[in-house]
Amino acid sequence: MSVEMPTADDLMTRTVVAIRPETTVAAAIRILVRHEISGAPVVDSEGRLVGLLSEHDCLRVTATGDYTQEDLPLGEPVSTLMSRPAHVVGPEAGIYSIAHVFLAHRIRRLPVVVGERLVGLIARRDVLRGLNGMSGQRGRRARRRARGAGLYLSATGRASEVIEIRLE
Questions:
Q1: For residues 93 and 11, is the Cβ–Cβ distance under 8 A?
Q2: pLDDT (tens digit per residue) in 98-130
Q3: Three-state secondary structure string covering 92-155
Q4: Spatial separation of the C-alpha atoms in residues 122 and 108, rounded to whole Å
Q5: pLDDT value of position 135
Q6: 5 by DSSP, 3-state: which?
Q7: What is the pLDDT averaged over residues 138-151?
Q8: For residues 116 and 49, what is the distance between their CA atoms, to the nearest angstrom?
Q9: DSSP reduced 3-state for 14
Q10: Does 52 score more than 70 pLDDT?
């Protein structure tokens, strides 16, 4: 019996903190700090994904001035600072292909879109939760098979030791 493969639809966060392109950099920083998130998608009034704003993008603001509040372009819209989403997935994308995108492109969040419309967001931790759930499925199935065959599994407690299987 195979383990069920999670998709983006299973893994994604559906309630997403999103920012509008016209939001000022100062307001966007307040949103990121208040929600304790490292970035957010930028969507237009129709819900179409137009960009991503990260902490890194916001920190770049400090490189433009003399490090005094008056010189920083905090009143600029995030549309001048955001990055364009280079990588997105659809709801049907599998967990392994999603993990590959994270590894290959060293990104922290991956928008899930249908057409151009944002429907969710996947973070690296969401993939880890999915992998953990898959691991749990394997373990439950192995225990059920072992009980059905009259086998009992016991771990020795150290990873370097072998799992002992006893027949009754």
A1: no
A2: 999 999 998 999 999 999 999 999 999 999 999
A3: CCEHHHHHHHHHHHCCCEEEEEECCEEEEEEEHHHHHHHHHHHHHHHHHHHHHHHHHCCEEEEC
A4: 9
A5: 80
A6: coil
A7: 52
A8: 6
A9: coil
A10: yes
